[in-house]
């Protein structure tokens, strides 16, 4: 069996896969994907622009929302070129280094989104449990520190996972199972022992996305306890209603992620296109739906977006 050694890793070319068994329909499949990408890019860009330009949105909650929109934009852009390139031009080839770069940014923006959702959960807890000290606890400097720590955390945790792939050798088959570079896919093509890569990758995801999910759940336990201690039913309803958008964003992030994990583990006999579509859903659902949820559920965002669109004559 021919093997590609580490010394020639820069010359390795992987072949990405569109939607298996549906290649004849790639042109038609590209239509909803184009709409999805256009919605994700325009929606998150509008929210970012509104938060930057509207002084009424210069508050902790909206700063965190701007970070979430940045993560969603990053996720969308990371897969845009390869996915639409396959659907439109059957451009399946991707170099080893380009593959690692794409993989890093997909994982980075995923971890960033998870971290921002945790920060937003903390923001909601402080706003509900200690509203009088909200502005003094979540100052602009502290929010900037949180943002920088999110970037550093993602970089430190994910760099070893991606860098360790350079030590692998690859067999003659270089066909990946998705339309973007997915860490388990690359490992499966290796002829080398990948146990270290698996352990480092699993550790990175557990210590970021896994830990974040636990603390988000803990935050909501504390929020529910605080809300239930409020005497007035109207005040309880008002307090909890401020969390609805965030709960929706958390669900949109974790449900596709959990579904993808279950499909990979327990539905190995499912048609290949099922795995592909769920993997695409996992990456594209949050960037598309988060702007819609926050625009519909948050009055201040809705007003700001209308104001921005009117100022542009739309």
UniProtKB/TrEMBL annotation:
Topology with respect to the bilayer: Multi-pass membrane protein
Localisation: Cell membrane; Membrane
Gene Ontology molecular function: G protein-coupled receptor activity; olfactory receptor activity
Major localization class: membrane
Coiled-coil ranges (or none): none
Pfam entry (one): 7tm_4
Domain of life assignment: Eukaryota
Occurrences of domain G-protein coupled receptors family 1 profile (ranges): 43-294
Cross-referenced SMART domains: 7TM_GPCR_Srsx
Any one of the GO CC terms: plasma membrane
Gene3D superfamilies named among the record's database cross-references: Rhodopsin 7-helix transmembrane proteins
Ranges annotated as spanning the membrane: 29-52, 64-89, 101-122, 143-165, 199-223, 244-267, 273-293
SUPFAM superfamilies linked to this entry: Family A G protein-coupled receptor-like (SSF81321)
Annotated keywords: Cell membrane, G-protein coupled receptor, Membrane, Olfaction, Receptor, Sensory transduction, Transducer, Transmembrane, Transmembrane helix
PROSITE patterns linked to this entry: G_PROTEIN_RECEP_F1_1, G_PROTEIN_RECEP_F1_2
Gene Ontology biological process terms in this record: cellular response to lipid
Family: Belongs to the G-protein coupled receptor 1 family.
Name the UniProt record assigns to this protein: Olfactory receptor
Source organism of this protein record: Myodes glareolus (Bank vole)
